[in-house]
């Protein structure tokens, strides 16, 4: 069987395998990034018009595109509805952007660490990935300048607000500096914002694309983290030089995004009901975040360092005594605990041992301490071998 | 702006432009392939479990995969649910298969004519397309053998049952012969079956994949033509050597297909209600097909030749005096009539003038004769110039 050469780059997803193992009900899973089941809002379908069953436009539903453009403008993103493309979850933005930009060997600039599924999507298309180290307030600017001077990336892919996995929220100063650098070097920005609305501690986070003066950009988001991921409704907003190509690539990929989910998303976006739901969601997750912080202090205080996430769904731990955390998985699962090793979030996993990504939205608070106690014991065992 | 080299192959879709022009309410459109609005079934959402809002499996909903495997087995396709992948409309099968097989220059074998969006998807990935002429009962077998002797296609893409655009249904003898040839040369088959259930004149049509003994295969279908296209729910069934790669490509493309639409599809597949709906659909479309045939005889009897379609949504006309039908579009639209030129359905459009694809599901019967009269007049005018 002769497959395309990209299939040799198609990696097995460690996340898939961990999540499969974490399905057993007795497993306490810190591995996934699923919204908490009790916080999935009850939705109503009774008023959906029958016309939503017919084929739709590749661009997406006009009213939904208007609503998304209005929300983006309120954040400072200069755009109108004609720049909005509804996608089948924001994962599809990564696929479309890969098709638009990446040939084998095309350079792409990423944060280190970065979102695993983005890294895999870009590598599938043959990207030569270059990374910039992440600090607590955003990328190391000197390193970013150096990368831009020495490379010609087709785009920079950044997740500036509560990144998965590091939970970093870029400071306003770093946002400004990153925009200026991308403008200076004329590098397109893909700004991925799935977690923007999951904020626990308020703070400024103006989108970087709103500060660009020259560079082209794609801004992408989703309703998956705040409404219902099962709808598979996301969006991208793109500058006018990119949009027509992205639209044709979307049409070739799946004609258009399902209209049922688009209609449901439209019922919520911008509504009073949605604002109320988001407020509930934030306070629910804030409580879980705080409980996780307390349990981490109890069990991991001597083992690891971390920042308290101000939004998103994850703690990102750095072990004081690094080891390849992938080697801990079997022992943890034997103790009925699942977690996500940090190595796969880096371009060069072997050179970046000693991080763990721990989700705080899934494990019930009463099992939290026990789960983290077991995980800490697994780490201590491994470090004493 | 440096795009990937595939963007140079990203064609503007003539269909998109024609459909946009055909939106004007005064236009009688024979151009599209939309299900008739009155035949979209009324669906109920009240019983959908809240869990359908959560993230799901990349493979698709287990119960839906079981139902699809059972239907396929009833057609003679040897498979089980583990070989079923739910996709975001069967267009996505073309995207996933392109990623699995096509590098720039990879040879791919197609019917002439073939489905336009498949041709575009394969060409986007750089396929070198080779075609086999279609006869009334399927491909020319001598030509097929000759192509297989002289080329090494990664796969053959065939639509053996009521093809879009030609409406051809392969005979059982040709299905058998095609399977034997693909086995002999070890060429993978992609069998695309969106129209199988839209049958007006009964006849045997056992899937070709069920006859293969050696070759790998992908069998793909959708609920778009018989239930609701707006759900964007399709499926593929693949041999076990292909499935794991397709699954990972699916995950990278959009994580999973929307669960709302999957749940709705499951309510219908295999049900008594669905059987009743399909029977109504067939008799509704049969009446429209017969009305179209009568109107064509009246206005096109001296202009063109055609076979009466035994299923599907289209008549495929061959002008007795060929001309490039793309040149007729503006004149037709000026008369408020839209149709689909035949040239884009061929690898080499300029070498294949003189076909029209006419949809019979959309224009109301009372306007049919007037629409075809105007279209015939446009053709006559052009031929007399």
Automatic annotation (TrEMBL), chains A, B:
SUPFAM superfamilies: PLP-dependent transferases. Keywords: Aminotransferase, DNA-binding, Pyridoxal phosphate, Transferase. One of its GO terms (molecular function) is transaminase activity. Residues 51-375 form the Aminotransferase class I/classII large domain. Its cofactor is pyridoxal 5'-phosphate. The keyword Oxidoreductase does not apply. Pfam families: Aminotran_1_2. The keyword Transferase applies. InterPro entries: Aminotransferase_I/II_large, Class-I_PLP-dep_aminotransf, PyrdxlP-dep_Trfase, PyrdxlP-dep_Trfase_major, PyrdxlP-dep_Trfase_small. Gene3D superfamilies: Aspartate Aminotransferase, domain 1, Type I PLP-dependent aspartate aminotransferase-like (Major domain). Homodimer. Belongs to the class-I pyridoxal-phosphate-dependent aminotransferase family. This is DNA-binding transcriptional regulator, MocR family, contains an aminotransferase domain.
